[in-house]
Design goal:
heterodimer, A: 111 residues, six-stranded mixed β-sheet, 11 strands, B: mainly beta, four-stranded antiparallel β-sheet, 50% strand
């Protein structure tokens, strides 16, 4: 099976940089994804790492190290609208797209 | 481009009853998945449908069932509701069965009393 652990809550101020970590125990997976979910809203795809290394998409970057069973999401130039929950997720080694989500991190951005 | 839409947004049912939740996929997406999200937790995979057939299932009992229609819309049916079924039910569509991002709807909040 798979399990993914994340810090429950992270706080930061506008303009700052924050890193949300994701450590996992899994026998194998295709890649690591990140989703953002505002209260009462739908999870929204942010980033995907199929290979080790850094992927950059605007203010967001994501990193994966399979040897360390570790990944992170980096958010730069934080804005108030970034306050949300963030989930890492791995795609299980199956013939269909089953995502296993982490425990989620609630990010609170203050002025 | 129309996104994923789900109905109803909220629903209250009594233990033992049956419920049907509905989902319209994003235009051009032929694959739909359903997830259950309990309060404060990450979504959990229920099952996936492709070309009107279930092609993958998570650790949910048979009383959770679904359908996909020729227009790729979908239904989630839950029989014999239990209190623990209270959760946000999310529908997600994707372009392919394999590695493409999931596009989620806003979900249906089900409360079982």
């Amino acid at each position: 099976g798979q399990s993914l652990e994340q810090p429950s809550e992270v706080t930061a101020v506008e303009g700052a940089i924050v890193q949300i970590n994701c450590t996992y125990q899994t026998s194998g997976f295709y890649g690591l994804s990140w989703y953002q979910q505002h209260d009462g809203g739908a999870p929204t795809f942010l980033s995907y790492n199929g290979l080790d290394g850094l992927e950059e998409t605007g203010r967001f970057s994501s990193f994966l190290s399979r040897s360390d069973s570790y990944g992170y999401l980096l958010l730069q130039e934080l804005q108030m609208k970034d306050s949300a929950s963030y989930f890492c997720a791995v795609r299980a080694l199956t013939g269909f797209q089953k995502l296993v989500f982490g425990t989620g991190t609630r990010l609170l951005v203050s002025p | 481009e129309t996104g994923v839409t789900q109905s109803p947004t909220h629903l209250i049912k009594t233990r033992g009853q049956q419920v049907t939740l509905r989902c319209s996929s994003q235009s051009g997406h032929n694959t739909v998945s359903w997830y259950q999200q309990a309060l404060g937790q990450g979504p959990q995979f229920i099952f996936q449908y492709y070309r009107e057939e279930e092609n993958g299932r998570g650790n949910f009992p048979p009383r959770f069932s679904g359908l996909q229609f020729p227009n790729y819309s979908s239904e989630l049916n839950v029989n014999a509701l239990e209190l623990d079924d209270s959760a946000l039910y999310l529908c997600a569509s994707s372009e392919t069965v394999y590695n493409s991002p999931l596009h989620f709807g806003n979900g249906t909040r089900l409360t079982v009393t």
